[in-house]
Amino acid sequence: MRRPTALAGTAALAAAVGATARRVSRFRPAGTAVEPADLAGLDADGAAGRLAELIRIPTVSSRGRSEIDQEAFARFRTRLTELYPRTHAALEREQLGDGALLYRWRGRTDEPPLVLMAHYDVVPVEGQDWSRDPFAGLIEDGVVHGRGAIDDKGYLVAILEAVEALVTEGFTPRRDVWLSFGNDEEVTGVGAQLAVAAFTERGIRPWAVLDEGGAVVTGMFPGVPGQVAVVGLAEKGRLDVELVTTDAGGHASSPLPGGAPARLAKAITALDEHPFPARMNDVVLGMVDAAGRHAPGPLRAVFAHADVLGPVLARVLARAGREANALVRTTVAVTRLEGSKATNVLATTAKANLNIRIALGETVASTVERLRQVIGDPTVELRVLAGGADPSPVSRADNEAYATVAAAAKAAYPDAVVAPYLMVQASDSRHFAEICDSVYRFMPFDVTREELAALHAADERISIAALHRGAGFVRHLLRTV
């Protein structure tokens, strides 16, 4: 799961504004005012209780199949049928592979369908300092605590709360609605790929796809008051590369200069000192333009001319903080180091794992080539590990699908500015880009910086109010598609 980023430091650009520059026009704001979403009939406390129950089922992902508690995953799937009986009576449900769920809610027409996505696997909690049992599903002071509260069981519950309420009132959507719930998103699994394969085999091309991603945040842009709802249009690529150096080894009492660990360290230092270049892209330009319309005075002028000031703005963002930096460049993170197994033995092999997130406009191949150039040492082997992917295509933001999602966000959060967004992480929805040009990534929750920081970390939580409004967003969307 994937957290939106913050922009900061942009005020320094105000003096550089040119009076004749044109505006970014590819991405449009949400449009005219919409009626606020109706939350009547949605049981906030009931939804919180159901989410708490599902948190208590520890559906923890692992890349090692033998380490997965398959009984917990099966129990989760069974409990869904019990918590949402009307949904399961009205919708067709099938299981794909080991546990991905695919539901079909038949609509009144044969128009292309809407796909709503979520995943019910969660990341481990080992090594984290939780203040509460992460799988107790505690509800305290209007907050649901536990692993998966936001990522991503909270979104799954918001979807099912909306569908259950609509089915109960006898509503039938205009177009088919499919629910695609993955069981292995956190380990880059195959559940979503199986769903895409099923759609392809059946000749189904979705009208739009909506998955986790951006959220409703406050303080995202300097000078922009209130909330900003960021809707992801694309996501960066991903790649893991292993750096390997070798040496003859021997006793640690007689080392030689330039051993395997030293050469590995030089390679890592070179990559750290020579990051990938910072460049603006269309999605970030659209985000800056949409949100910047609401900034005061000089800042508004800066944002309005972001296309002309792109190179300068890219450099400012690169220095504005780790998350803003990730918007404008390919990032390289050293996540693992390995050397000798003994304290008094020279390493015959030294290894480092690089976790890389590839910027729009670059590819796996171009990324690997630049790594080689920067390292500049043929004795450092680069092993490209399986599972890499180029950045996703950029989804359309000039069509009815985006306008409908943006309008639903505005209905649920009337005071929010709606803006496009670039996800710096990966999601299951990237697979649907193969069959749909309108894949959006938006988690309809109003979350604080502290709550975002708890994703994949200790003390993950979501307020009952945010969960309630998220269900309102989904229900409003379903009524309007």
TrEMBL record:
Residues 234-379 form the Peptidase M20 dimerisation domain. PROSITE patterns: ARGE_DAPE_CPG2_2. Keywords: Carboxypeptidase, Hydrolase, Metal-binding, Protease, Zinc. One of its GO terms (molecular function) is carboxypeptidase activity. One of its GO terms (biological process) is proteolysis. Belongs to the peptidase M20A family. This is Carboxypeptidase PM20D1. It comes from Blastococcus aggregatus.
